[in-house]
């Protein structure tokens, strides 16, 4: 727990190490805060004013393997899927396909492909990306994902 002084007030901040999130608690005077906080259990701390989620940051590998090009996408490992998405500059899709192998990626592609479902799936993926990672899914990335993934599939979607 840390305190920051500002104009005779004390703002208490709690740093949650696992989530890298900061919660700001209501202001109290410095004289009133110390005696209470020294003896009070943490359950008596004031309720958070706001909880600010932090966006997920991707780190591009310096070398991207192209081994995935020799294998049908349905047989890709999780690493092949990541390599493919990085290689094709589909970084936002990496956040949505975490821990997916080729078979699961193909199922996602299959759900996105029918004309009527294409834009419903775009909306669904965009909402998930925004909720989980505070980012939006560009239409260009979504369309490139559909086109590029279909190129490496050995199974026809038609």
Work out the count of structural domains. 2
What structural class do you assign from the helix and strand content? alpha+beta
Terminal CA distance: 58 Å
Low-confidence stretches: 1-28
Q: Can you count the beta strands?
A: 5
Taking the sheet with the most strands, its summary is:
5 strands, antiparallel
| Helical run tally | 6
3D shape = globular
In quaternary terms, these chains amount to single chain
The helix fraction, in percent, is 40-55%
Q: Please indicate the percent range of residues in DSSP E strands (runs of 2 or more).
A: 15-25%
SSE order, one letter for each helix or strand: EEEEHEHHHHH
- The average pLDDT score comes to 76
Radius of gyration: 23 Å
Q: What would your notes on this structure say?
A:
This protein is of the alpha+beta class and 158 residues long. It folds into two domains: 2-52, no CATH class; 67-151. The protein contains six helices and five strands, in the order E-E-E-E-H-E-H-H-H-H-H. The chain has helices at residues 30-39, 78-87, 91-96, 102-112, 115-133, 139-151; strands at 2-6, 9-16, 21-25, 28-29, 48-52. Strands 1, 2, 3, 4 and 5 form a five-stranded antiparallel β-sheet that branches. The longest helix has 19 residues, at 115-133. The N and C termini lie far apart (58 Å). 15% of the residues are buried.
């Amino acid at each position: 727990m840390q305190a920051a002084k500002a104009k005779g007030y004390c703002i208490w901040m709690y740093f949650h190490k696992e989530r890298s999130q900061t919660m700001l608690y209501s202001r109290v005077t410095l004289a009133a805060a110390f005696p209470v906080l020294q003896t009070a259990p943490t359950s008596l701390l004031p309720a958070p004013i706001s909880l600010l989620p932090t966006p997920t940051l991707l780190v591009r590998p310096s070398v991207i393997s192209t081994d995935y090009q020799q294998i049908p996408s349905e047989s890709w490992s999780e690493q092949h899927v990541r390599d493919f998405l990085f290689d094709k500059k589909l970084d936002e899709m990496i956040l949505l396909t975490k821990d997916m192998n080729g078979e699961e990626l193909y199922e996602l592609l299959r759900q996105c492909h029918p004309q009527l479902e294409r834009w419903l799936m775009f909306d669904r993926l965009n909402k998930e990306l925004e909720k989980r990672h505070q980012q939006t899914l560009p239409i260009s990335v979504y369309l490139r994902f559909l086109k590029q993934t279909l190129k490496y599939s050995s199974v026809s979607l038609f």
